[in-house]
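User: I'm new to structure prediction. If I give you an amino acid sequence, what do you actually give back? Let's try with this one:
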Amino acid sequence: MSERVPAGGPYRAAVGLHDRLTLEHLQEARRLLSSYCSSGMDYCCRVLRLLGMMSPLVARARLEDLSRNSSYEGLDKGIIDLYRRLERFYSDYVTGVLLEYGEDVIVIIKRLVEIDGVVLVPGEYVRLPPGEAASLFLAGLAMPGEATAIKIGRLCSRREGAGRSEVPEKD
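Assistant: Good question. You get back a string of structure tokens that encode the predicted 3D arrangement of the chain. For your 171 residues, that looks like this:
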């Protein structure tokens, strides 16, 4: 198989990890996959199995690497941004920065949303399991609450220039 296989562009881009993912990369990947799968069922299944084993590794490597690059502008920039926001949310959760009740996270609703049949309006506080809180945060529907001491600490850090510059602040 050539260096463009399997799946062409995205994997070639992953070799450098910093390469921008483009629509041409994705079209080339689909074209290559289509041609391999037209070569018989056994060959197609083997290629798909290999892709299934490698894709998570490539995706993880790209997410890890590109999330540190705030100037990245590839086709997958939105996914990289979501990963960056999820990483920030999770790091704040595990370090106790977020306002929590037990293991749940207290979030402030930003937009009208329905959760388990209950309609919540902007400004309401709700207690949610971490995964649900993260999902709402990533969707822009809620923001995690912070304890007053943590808010003051963040202000001090920003004033001293010790804030995290690579990761965007919470909305």
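You can read the tokens as a compact description of the fold. Here is one thing that stands out. DSSP finds six helices and six strands in the chain.
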